[in-house]
Amino acid sequence: MATAIIVEPKGQGFGFLQYARCFNGIVWREALRFWHQRERFVSALVRPLVWLFIFAAGFRSVLGVSIIPPYDTYVLYDVYITPGLIAMIELFSGMQSSLSMVYDREMGNMRSLLVSPFPRWFLLTSKLVAGTAVSVVQVYAFLAVAYFWEIEPPSPWGYLTVLPALIVAGLMLGALGMLLSSLIKQLENFAGVMNFVIFPMFFASSALYPLWRVKEGSPWLAFFCELNPFTHAVELIRFAFYEQINVLSLGVVLGAGAVFLTAAIVAYDPSRGMLKGREGS
Amino acid sequence: MSLGPPQPEAASGDTNGELSAALQVASVSHSYGKRKALDNVSFRVRPASFCVLLGLNGAGKTTLFSLVTRLYAAQQGTLRICGFDVNRTPGEALRRLGVVFQARTLDLDLTVLQNLSYHAALHGMTAQETKLHTAAVLDQVSMADRANDKARTLSGGQMRRVEIARALLHRPRMLLLDEPTVGLDVKARADILKHVRSLVTRTSIGVLWATHLIDEIQPGDDAVLLHEGRILDQGQASEIATRADVPDIGSAFKKLTGIAGEEASWQRP
């Protein structure tokens, strides 16, 4: 039997500028979507402000925070939980992005993105960067309001030094959201993410109380909190706000971010991932 | 910059005619768990031809489209667009492909122009190319006057026309349309069908039109009859009818699938 030999034609490939145009397009679309969903911005801002103005004010006199790094003096509870609330904004933003990816997949919009000729890892990473940029804008809006509540870094430089921490933490949490979006089959299942991911991540962390206090109550819970990447996102932001670097937290956040993003890219790979062979996906 | 019809891929090294096909589907099988959605499916779409993929709901049309667009990978077989293997060189294959999915995929919060610009960016087009091509394709589908309107203000037929314009924006050589007339009124259906047919005659684009509506097929069209994941027959619609010894393609499909009487009511919109 004669064997057919097929010589594939030579492709044109893509240059740097074409990649840049694609990236710009994805960021631009995310910005437009954010602009069109202004209520999303308001709700993202109101949530941490409620925690700050009501929860923290209520617990201010009940919960004392001893002198722990990066603080060199006693701080009010409102000051302590601010980095946790910042990380909460990024956590919810990452999950919101995940929710919108599930919605887009159900509604068909996601297909427009995935049939682009650019590599899928590039498309997903661009979407992740765009989502992180949106979350960083939300954080600065929160910090602007918090300023009038007398919550501010020791020097104005803190607003600048916190930026890299916000980007790294935002990418890690956004990558987690992207990974979750590949695992969720239907929009209705998203409530499970709230119960099994967002709440445990947030409450089993140093966002609301220092870990030494948790350790007093339950060493096992404290151990779990120390393993939680969200704890390290909070600590990275806390130290950066005070113009310091928490090397351990930076390492954990970078490592977790790389793992989540790699897993998400694999999950969205048509031949290897979770979408493989899923009817109707 | 030329806005003329796209040129077919050079066929150098084409020993079997595979490269001269706008779309080549070879021995493709795909299953969802134990359910076989496609079973050893093979056919080709020639450049400058209108090919109808005819099948009932659940025949495997959408699965086939998902594999061609690489939403997921075929478990067996190969798919080539203008000679490029969809799984081995997806970038080259997908840049030559335009797709209109069955589900609406426009972003309703964006204007028509913004939707098209987003698509252009996803194909790495320059601002100048985007501007020129956008004007041309919107003009082709008679939607230039709605360019600045939000997608959610358009009717179903207008949305489909914008989706076709979007699919043509990067000047593909192969166009897939998955049941594009579903949910449209008679006039909108006729307009869209007429427009896509005119594209084939005006350009060298190959079109694969998936449908379950018999009246969308003309005797001279190429047709692929898909049923329960398997191809029953393929070729020119009139030839399929002749082979089945019946007067038309609708009767041929009924005969080959064993669908009769009331059950065949699917064939008319």
Structural description of this entry:
- The complex is a heterodimer of chains A (281) and B (269).
- Chain A has 281 residues and is an all-alpha fold.
- Helices cover 71% and strands 0% of the residues of chain A.
- Chain A has helices at 16-36, 38-59, 77-107, 109-114, 120-147, 157-183, 190-203, 211-217, 219-227, 229-241, 247-268.
- In chain A, 41% of the residues are buried.
- The mean pLDDT of chain A is 85.
- Chain B has 269 residues and is of the alpha/beta class.
- In chain B, strand 1 and strand 2 (35-45) form a beta hairpin.
- The termini of chain B are far apart.
- Residues 1-18 and 261-266 of chain B have low confidence and may be disordered.
- The interface between A and B is large, with 45 and 57 residues.
Layout of strands and helices, then pairs:
The complex is a heterodimer of chains A (281) and B (269).
Chain A: H1 16-36, H2 38-59, H3 77-107, H4 109-114, H5 120-147, H6 157-183, H7 190-203, H8 211-217, H9 219-227, H10 229-241, H11 247-268
Helix pairs in contact in A: 1-5, 2-3, 2-5, 3-5, 3-6, 3-10, 5-6, 5-11, 6-10, 6-11, 8-9, 10-11
Chain B: E1 23-32, E2 35-45, E3 50-54, H1 61-68, E4 76-81, E5 84-85, H2 90-94, E6 97-100, H3 112-122, H4 127-140, H5 156-168, E7 174-178, H6 186-202, E8 206-211, E9 222-227, E10 230-236, H7 237-244, H8 249-257
Parallel strand pairs in B: 3-8, 3-9, 6-7, 7-8
Antiparallel strand pairs in B: 1-2, 1-4, 4-5, 9-10
